[in-house]
Amino acid sequence: MEFKEWLIAQEGSIFANRGVETTPNTRVIATTNTDFEKPNVLYITGMNSSGSVARNLAMQGYPVKTISTENNWKATIIGRTKQWPGFKQVIGGMADREGDAHISNQIQKVHSEIPLNWHPEIVVGGSQGGAVAMACVPLFPNAKFILISPAWKIFNVKPHLPPGSVIIHGTKDMQVPITDSEELAQATGAKLVTTNNGHRIDTGFVLSVIGQLAKAIKPPKEPEANDSPKLFNYNRLQPPISGS
Q1: Which is more confidently placed, 239 or 118?
Q2: Closest among 116, 114, 118, 115 to 133, alpha carbons compared
Q3: Domains in the chain, ordered, with CATH?
Q4: CA dist 168 to 44, 82, 143, 190, Å?
């Protein structure tokens, strides 16, 4: 199914123009009925993330807090290597210990950077940030979670997600196998949404999934009789950025 068709099926005709690609450099978003309260979003980035999802959410009026995860190449490399045939018996224990220590440090980083009076209603994490986000489920028991290509097996994070969670994964991902997300969805009951992407997922697609979850948490008001669709081209504010 094409991206536009998927959005129309999800949102109905009133939002049919959301996500329509008009040119390679322009995305048009329907702004009809935008006077609804946006939920707080915590975005936990992966390694070398562009941060485009968080920036675009902020431009759309979401209260966003971004936390960048720290790189740990040793934990990453041996965490990937342990999944190769025959390597788990050799380095599996060391890889898991490195992953556990690294994730523990990232949880502390998240805890220390979240303001005491600020509570996320949606937690988004990409790649390594997806692993950290899942490890932070006990910190945010009332939040909904969206994990993007989560590297949970690489960093030895136990599968645990609250009801209503969503996993997004590209079918062409060469860094984190999509089978990891299939296993995670099976273990937790999360909804797995796949796209024809690699490890980096199209920003517009991620924004559309977040928007769906946001409206489920805080439904928009019913449109007034004299409401007419208005189109907002966010290309005017910032050049489009792809990648999560």
Answers
A1: 118
A2: 114
A3: 1-32 (no CATH), 38-225 (3.40.50.1820)
A4: 15, 24, 17, 10
